[in-house]
């Protein structure tokens, strides 16, 4: 219930009744006393009507689309069902929005006729909101302010409860990886299957005793003047790894408290999922890891746009973690060679760059994106072989990505 149960019209009626009461006694006009009693009686009846007459309401809330990324808008549809014994005049409604969502979530609630028994009246309401901060945000409850048919009294109804809306990190359209050596670039990639299984492509290898004569590659044998046999080469999907560094000492404390609180960490999360989307589009199977090797979601297969959206939704609640050194990441790849390896980190210094230096030699495309590099950290990383660039919270992520993948290892973004 509102603290003051009367509308402006009802308040004016009470004030007029009080004025009539004093004027009736001051000037001995009994008719004004009748007007006073009538106004007070009507106002009292209006208050009793809106507060004592039964009225039931329910609401169904739907989001179109079901989830949204930062910077996008989502349409909210409210289907309100009302059953009341008496008609209600035009009122107002407002849906409660949390921090991180912005929009005009209110308006005029239409007048209703009486609906007794099994009859009910349905009201459809719509509005748009813009997602400004990542996280799982609760929308609602709905508040409906109704009035009596005379418009003297009002009552505020809280209808339904809050509903969660997933706000995923923004996915920025990054530029193509480009024509890079080895398995780092291009949209069609192959790798040799040394077991000789499959029959996608055929390449010659040296003859060894026991090989079937039917597998001899006569043209290659004539060219090399020694027996060669057909070695089957099987097409496989190349792998890429994106690492989102969540170590709290490389971000601000706000990144640990809740999603959407630290602009730098938000830019890092957006950069990570944007790189995943770019590499999947390029034909890579992409794994998103933390610096300790923990999976931050299911791997995204090549060209799987739906998988990118699912992974983005998984990152809606991601926050920074305590005590995550960089050394486990280096040890993870020290005995292997991988395709593109993109590390998204925050406030790194020269010591961190020194730790990461050996890792660059184990990737066909080592890319380092730092939100807040300290001093000469990126220059040190670039000298070790990283393609490094700064990612500013209020800057152009696509430009930073392009600067990183297009430059040689000896250059760095200033």
Q: If you had to describe this structure to a student in words, what would you say it looks like?
A:
This protein is α/β, with parallel strands linked by helices. 28% of the residues lie in helices and 28% in strands. The protein is built from 10 helices and 18 strands. It has helices spanning 8-27, 30-52, 218-224, 254-257, 263-282, 305-314, 327-333, 350-356, 377-383, 397-406, and strands spanning 55-64, 67-69, 73-84, 89-95, 101-103, 106-109, 121-131, 135-139, 142-147, 154-159, 163-168, 201-206, 228-233, 239-244, 285-289, 338-345, 363-370, 387-390. α1 runs antiparallel to α2 (30-52) and α5 (263-282) runs antiparallel to α6. It is elongated and about 130 Å long. The relative contact order is 0.10. The model is unreliable at 179-201 and 409-414 (pLDDT under 50).
Provide the fold topology.
Elements: H1 8-27, H2 30-52, E1 55-64, E2 67-69, E3 73-84, E4 89-95, E5 101-103, E6 106-109, E7 121-131, E8 135-139, E9 142-147, E10 154-159, E11 163-168, E12 201-206, H3 218-224, E13 228-233, E14 239-244, H4 254-257, H5 263-282, E15 285-289, H6 305-314, H7 327-333, E16 338-345, H8 350-356, E17 363-370, H9 377-383, E18 387-390, H10 397-406
Parallel strand pairs: 2-11, 14-15, 14-16, 16-17, 17-18
Antiparallel strand pairs: 1-3, 3-7, 4-6, 4-9, 5-7, 8-11, 9-10, 12-13
Give the structure's gist in a few sentences:
The protein is α/β, with parallel strands linked by helices and 414 residues long. The protein has helices spanning 8-27, 30-52, 218-224, 254-257, 263-282, 305-314, 327-333, 350-356, 377-383, 397-406; strands at residues 55-64, 67-69, 73-84, 89-95, 101-103, 106-109, 121-131, 135-139, 142-147, 154-159, 163-168, 201-206, 228-233, 239-244, 285-289, 338-345, 363-370, 387-390.
